[in-house]
Amino acid sequence: MLRRFQMPKERLGSDMWGHWERPLFRPDGWPQVPTDPRLLALYCYWGDAAGPGELQQRTDVFPVRLTSVLPHVYVLDVVGATFRFRLRGSEIDRRLGHHRTGLTFEECGYGDSLDKVKREYANVVRQRRPVTTAGMVYWGSEFNALRYENIRLPVFDAAGAVVHLLCAMVFHEEPST
Q1: Measured between alpha carbons, how far is 33 from 27 in angstroms, rounded to an integer?
Q2: 8 A C-beta contact, residue 33 and residue 43
Q3: Quick one: average pLDDT of 83-104?
Q4: CB 113 within 8 A of CB 15
Q5: Nearest-5° angle of CA 24, CA 78, CA 103?
Q6: What is the rounded end-to-end Cα distance, in angstroms, of the chain?
Q7: Which residues does residue 83 pair with via DSSP β-bridges, in sequence order?
Q8: Would you say 127 and 121 are in contact if contact means Cβ atoms under 8 Å apart?
Q9: Which among 4, 103, 163, 176 is most buried, taking Cβ atoms within 10 Å?
Q10: What is the DSSP string of 29-63?
């Protein structure tokens, strides 16, 4: 059973969507290796996509080769100072209850959380390296919530600019009691 609970409205103000998360880093500043095997598979695939010393380019990445991960994958286009969902996996849509493919962050209804969400993804672009996170996402008039683990991987163009983020999100089951 997924961990769901009612989030008090006063915690969110006027938002109908929100989240909290924490980045997971090793002492050397690189991201902690994901604990979920699906995220680990994507991380390893991304790391192997380019040759030694080369940047992972769009032409190197074929998410369909990771069929077990694909329902959890989302790909973002970097569009100036914002991001557009190029693809969002069916499991993410199912768990969160909405479809976002083709929409920018501004069109997704993040409300007061928009700037925070954009900053978190902009950090991956600026740092030019993976970020793993764990947190909670909550949404809707009932303020449903789910725990998740996430990985965000930069994908570069031929000139070395980050043009996409290859990401995945998995939701954690509540431990049985």
Answers
A1: 12
A2: yes
A3: 91
A4: yes
A5: 100
A6: 11
A7: 78
A8: no
A9: 163
A10: SSBPPPSSHHHHHHHHHHHHHS-TT---BGGG--G
User: Can you tell me the distance from the alpha carbon of 81 to that of 134, in angstroms, rounded to the nearest whole number?
Assistant: 24
Burial (CB count within 10 angstroms: exposed 0-12, middle 13-18, buried 19+), residue 111: middle
**126-164 pLDDT per residue, tens:** 999 888 888 887 766 666 677 889 999 999 998 999 999
Rounded to whole angstroms, how far apart are CA atoms 27 and 117? 24
- Helices (H) then strands (E): counts for the chain: 3, 6
pLDDT digits (tens, 9 = 90+) for 63-76: 677 888 999 999 99
What is 9-49+57-171's CATH number, 3.40.50.2000, 1.10.10.410, 3.40.50.300, 3.30.450.20? 3.30.450.20
